[in-house]
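Standup notes
- HV: blocked on the assembly model, inputs below
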Amino acid sequence: MEHRENERAGIPELPLEQWRLGELSASRKNQLIAEFSEARIERELEALERSEQSFLRSAPNFLGTIENEASLPPQAKVLPLSKAWPFLAPLLVAAAALFTIYLPQKKTSTDSFFEDDILLKGDVKALAIYKQTDEGVLALADGALVKAGDVVQLVYNAEAYDYGIIISVDGTGHVTWHFPTDTSQATQLINGQPVPLKNSFRLDSSPRYERFFFLRSKSPIQLDLQNIAAGQDFSSVDTLPLPSEIDQFSFLLRK
Amino acid sequence: MVYRRCFRLLGDKMRAEEAMQDVFVKVVQAKDRLDLESNPGALLYRIATHTAFNMLRSSKRRPEVANSELILELAEVQGSSQDPTDRSFLKALLENEEESTRLMATYHYVDGMTIDELAAEFKMSASGIKKRLLNFKLRMKERGLADGT
């Protein structure tokens, strides 16, 4: 009966799904890597991602607009999926609002909160983050609590530096580039005043936190930040292992 | 993930979609009783598994057969001499078992999770998991569904 104990043909679904959702502990990940190899696990995770994308292509993109919990429709009819979306979508929105991390979403860009020529009031240090609310734009404090679906805007202040990079690392260890958005572009900053990035973005469903790093330097910055930052836990670590000539500023958003 | 899990157990696109709807109805209706803070993916996976099994159990009026691949896997593991394509085999396997035991048996025999992984998932000791699975196996044997090896 326990022939699968010592030799398993396939990677079990549940830990693989948990890995994909960022729920698997480092120790359990290491156990799976030791048993199945990292390359094989990566292939399986890629297959899951393809499956996910295939499923989402067959359905309306309801998850990208989750902001409020929907009300439950009175009827829970069983219909073919194509006919069931009018009933099913609110249910899924409501459930996804509860399970904010059940399905990782990509960060989505929207227009900036600020006009290009706006002068931001207040003391913007190296990096400030604003959140769009019903009442207007709210400046967030370092360590502020946010949730998936919140729309935030980054504003940087170059101060005495000429070059910069802004990235964030989420609770799954995924690295997102905010400035420049194309890593092949120059990283020259605009000096003189706080500068909003061209786009705000909607926070995704990654768990626990988003740690932003604003790296500034007097000279162009060329770093393999993907290798430096990806997969690391920055929940309580606010610096990257970088050369001392690069100034670092960290900003944490908790989820 | 929910759809994938339902499809794996039910082996039918339409029924997997039905099960997926049921899962989210349950989640919304039971939101006050669910622990949504820790490992929500695992919780969804468990609800999806439970929902798919309930659908299998309550489908005797339906003409479809259950996922034949799943039945074959269970038959292989259980060493049954019965025809594994007989729906009664799977129904007997699923009947009269506590939900948690049914989940454990599925995670172990169908999904290939180890005793240690089950212990972590169900927050039980490894010996407790082994005992539950052993008793499950004995009941299968009593019903003539396993060779007991």
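- HV (later): unblocked. Chain A has five helices and eleven strands. The mean pLDDT of chain A is 74.
- Next: hand off to the docking folks.
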